[in-house]
Amino acid sequence: MEAWEEKRRAIWVMRVLGAILALLLLTTGIAIHSMRGSGAHAVVGLGSAIFVAALMVGAFLGFLFSVPRVLARGATEAAVGAVPAGTQAQRLLETNTNLERISDWLTTLIVGAGLTQVARAGEALASFSAFVGTASAPLGPVAARLPGLAPMILVTGVILGFLAMYLYTRIEITRLFRHAELDCYLDRDAQRAVANAIQRAPSAAPLPTPSLGSISVEDALDLMFSMLYDGDAGYARVIDLAGRLSSSSAVARPEYWFYLAAAFGQQHGVATAEGDQELRQSARDNALDAARRAVRIDPSYRDRLRALATPGGNDDDLATLAEDPDMRRVLEG
């Protein structure tokens, strides 16, 4: 379930970023509204506007300086060549490095320009203080100290924004980038399981020439679907393969649980016909668990599961569970 936990973490990260952005926009709106008046509220509003603007600039710089770097093709090939043949997954996608190139160019430009202008930093802050003094003059005597505080507010906002975004990108977003790329791959053991399943059921194989290092999650899911209706014992091969893939990133895909629910549904039907109560109960529990997991990942799979539970349909794998109270709750939501 590690892959599913990573997906939930990705959703949480995006929600946090959205909440932070919404908070910044709300603060900006309140600050601008406060500046329409005069007195202490207007001064606080102007100071908040300076801080939020500096914070966002610092966050942008922090992101630019922390964009994950992709290994050069030569370095990647050298690293792969150092691993014994058949144990290293080949990359199935070439990473788009446009953002990385822009980041490199901008960071080089910013650092270069900053080093040439560092001697004028004091002069620039003094000019900014004078500008704030002119802008805050209509706010009344209470704004007299703001020009002296404005440079400190500006520098503090930039530093805090830079550090916060830099650390967040390095810790969380880099992790998500890596996880998104690894979602395409299967580990060595999972690839061996898929290759062996293809060799045992050649008529169901979606891969013309299975080889370790080139088998993806999509290939494994296609194979599960093909084996599901390949002969009378297809469901048993799907259950066996799913067990071997249980520690791979395939478990984060709703198709994995959907096909597994269908396989256990077929097993339940066979056990019902043969009168095997122990196998029937086990198949029922496993089918129910798989159906719940598929719907949890993607609620739209509820309709597909409902179709499998319709007796007389083309694929009625879950028909023998259609009247099960727990299964009905899953299907009806």
Description:
The protein has two domains: 2-182, no CATH class; 188-332, no CATH class. The chain is an all-alpha fold and 333 residues long. Helix 8 packs parallel to helix 10 and helix 9 (234-244) crosses helix 10 (254-274). It has helices spanning 2-34, 40-66, 73-81, 98-117, 121-136, 146-182, 188-200, 217-228, 234-244, 254-274, 277-297, 301-308, 325-332. The model is unreliable at 71-94 (pLDDT under 50).
Give a concise summary.
This protein is mainly alpha-helical and 333 residues long. It has helices at residues 2-34, 40-66, 73-81, 98-117, 121-136, 146-182, 188-200, 217-228, 234-244, 254-274, 277-297, 301-308, 325-332. It has two domains: 2-182, no CATH class; 188-332, no CATH class.
Search tags:
333 residues, mainly alpha
Q: Estimate nothing, just give the exact number of structural domains.
A: 2
Element pattern in H and E: HHHHHHHHHHHHH
The class by helix and strand makeup works out as mainly alpha
| Uncertain runs | 71-94
Mean model confidence by pLDDT:
79
| Shape descriptor | elongated
Strand content: under 5%
- Radius of gyration, taken over Cα atoms and rounded to an integer in Å: 29 Å
Compute the number of helices: 13
Largest sheet: none
Number of strands: 0
Helix-residue proportion: over 70%
End-to-end Cα distance, whole Å, is 23 Å
